[in-house]
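Q: I'm building a small set of examples for a reading group on sequence design. Run inverse folding on the following structure and report the sequence directly after it, with nothing in between.
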């Protein structure tokens, strides 16, 4: 065989292993790529599966309401117990109606107020009392009235401005009403119809009715009893210590 033919044979013969080797490398690379890709996905899925899931908040379960239960605010005032005084809706000084039922569960001090009375500075004490005890559940409700010597002649807007500018009043103040006489407001008709010693017309501005967490009249204090009076504070503390379901013993 000639040298030329021999070289051609060697080239052909030596080219076959080279081709096989190259194909083997390519096949291995493809297989490796497939394996890495497949396992990367599995590892990613596994890692994702081990991360804590984001849970949407679920509303707290509430106790079932008995079928025969009637919400307190659905009971008309004239069908409530005689000592329950929260069945009325009265506008605030800004004219927005507010159900007194809103305050059930709180200890309430109801006060008929006036802007031109010798006792008007009690606004300051009432505000202090409210600020010091509101976190424990006390609320003061003011009811301006012009029944005594015309000492509350202003409009609701004027009363609101007076209370804020002079005493920084932040407790709820309601529209002006009548607290005695033929035009007495139903709330005060209910308050003043209570048995003695709680019942009877207010003697003057700043008569105070104390109402327990169940909306029942608990005690009455005269106009000259200051909001800082120890006897008043003691009765308020007594009611604040009661739960919303524990009945308090009214004065009698």
């Amino acid at each position: 065989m000639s040298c030329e033919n021999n070289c051609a044979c060697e080239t052909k013969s030596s080219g076959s292993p080279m081709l096989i080797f190259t194909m083997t490398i390519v096949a291995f690379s493809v297989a490796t790529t497939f394996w890495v890709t497949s396992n990367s996905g599995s590892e990613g899925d596994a890692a994702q599966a081990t991360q804590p899931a984001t849970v949407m908040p679920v509303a707290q379960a509430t106790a079932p309401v008995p079928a025969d239960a009637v919400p307190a605010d659905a009971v008309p005032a004239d069908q409530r117990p005689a000592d329950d005084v929260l069945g009325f809706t009265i506008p605030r000084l800004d004219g927005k109606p507010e159900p007194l039922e809103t305050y059930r569960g709180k200890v309430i001090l109801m006060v008929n107020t006036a802007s031109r009375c010798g006792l008007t500075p009690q606004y300051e004490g009432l505000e202090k009392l409210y600020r010091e005890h509101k976190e424990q559940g006390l609320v003061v409700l003011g009811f301006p009235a012009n029944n005594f010597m015309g000492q509350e002649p202003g409009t609701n807007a004027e009363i609101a401005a007076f209370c804020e500018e002079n005493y920084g009043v932040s407790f709820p103040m309601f529209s002006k009403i009548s607290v005695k006489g033929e035009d007495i407001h139903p709330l005060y008709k209910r308050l003043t119809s209570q048995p003695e010693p709680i019942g009877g017309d207010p003697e003057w501005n700043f008569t105070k009715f104390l109402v327990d967490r169940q909306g029942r009249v608990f005690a009455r204090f005269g106009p000259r009893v200051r909001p800082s009076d120890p006897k008043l504070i003691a009765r308020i503390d007594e009611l604040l210590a009661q739960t919303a379901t524990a009945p308090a013993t009214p004065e009698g």
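Confidence is low (pLDDT under 50) at residues 1-72.
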